[in-house]
Amino acid sequence: ASLVLFPLVGLFVAFMIYQLLGRFATPVTALRAAMEKKQFIPYLQPVVDGTHHQITGCEVLMRWQHPQSGLIPPYQFIPLAEESGLIVPMTRAMMEQVREQFGPLAAELPKGFHFGFNICASHFKDLTLVDDCKAFIDAFKANPIKLVLELTERELIEQTETTQSLFNGLRRMGVLIALDDFGTGHSSLTYLQKFHIDILKIDQSFIGRIGTDALAGHIVDNVIDLAKRLQMVIVAEGVETQAQVDYLTPYQIEFLQGYFFGKPVAANDFVEKWL
Ligand code: C2E
Ligand code: MG
Ligand code: MG
Ligand code: MG
Q: Which reaction is catalysed here (predicted)?
């Protein structure tokens, strides 16, 4: 009997250990598992031109489609993804999904359509980013698009040789660099001096206070002025009301983005609604 019992007990013990490990699985393990199950999906938000409000591009925003919890927003998992380094393969998967879905639709996109991806500071040390960008651009040969990398300022990019050669490689390919959430960090002006920035995205906290807060209006006025002097393109983020549109229109800002024009939606809905 022990010949039968022994392996059974062994199996049972192994099963219990497995259960325990699962219970105490670190969130990083959960992120990795979710990545393998392809639960991270792109949502796309339209970006329109500042004059006629026609669609000119989109920003890709990551969502975690959780089988139990539903759609989880980025603030609940991006910080951990960045700390753990998982953000690099997760971002690559985002670029692949968008490329596979939209590459075959290239001909239907407005000319020079912009695709914006959020890239964290630590990702700018990884030279594979250049290959990923190349693969993305190549998928749209039928009707070339503009690839925009949006850099957020949660941490400062170190100015190393690797980073500089990476930036140079990206520039040579025509990739545009946008500074996201401009005006919120302490490092924004430092970035403008160190790296070639093509696009400034004025943070939604300033846009949101236009009309109710004179100071926010002055800040927006001055950021626009600065960007024009530095010959940078401007995106006003978080445009929600007609009053904000009316305030911004005389400035002839290149691009506007916000719920007023459209919320982020899944890729299929984006195609249906915007293309
Ligand atoms: P972000 O890059 O500044 O993206 C804009 C955020 O503002 C998005 O939130 C968008 O849904 C939201 N938004 C757009 N228009 C409006 C508006 O009119 N009103 C309001 N209240 N909100 C608006 P979301 O999708 O929750 O993303 C939050 C942040 O998470 C992003 O801010 C970005 O920093 C980060 N994130 C999202 N996807 C990725 C990603 O793939 N990689 C990385 N590294 N970060 C990401
Ligand atoms: Mg962004
Ligand atoms: Mg932003
Ligand atoms: Mg943000």
A: 3',3'-c-di-GMP + H2O = 5'-phosphoguanylyl(3'->5')guanosine + H(+)
The pLDDT of residue 195 is 85
Query: Is the sign of the CA dihedral 226, 178, 138, 55 positive or negative?
Result: negative
Percentage of residues in the chain having pLDDT higher than 90:
75
Residue 115 CA to residue 168 CA, distance in Å, equals: 20
With a 6 A CB cut-off, is 198 part of the ligand 1 pocket?
A: no
d(CA 255, CA 120) in angstroms, rounded, equals: 22
Q: Which positions of the chain have pLDDT values less than 70? A: 1, 22-25, 153-154, 186-187
Atom index in ligand 1 nearest the CA of residue 154 equals: 34
Q: Which ligand is nearest to the CA of 181?
A: 3
Among protein residues, the one whose CA lies closest to atom 8 of ligand 1: 61
| Spatial separation of the C-alpha atoms in residues 122 and 120, rounded to whole Å | 6
The number of the ligand nearest the C-alpha atom of 61 reads 1
The pTM of the full predicted model, rounded to 2 decimals, is 0.91
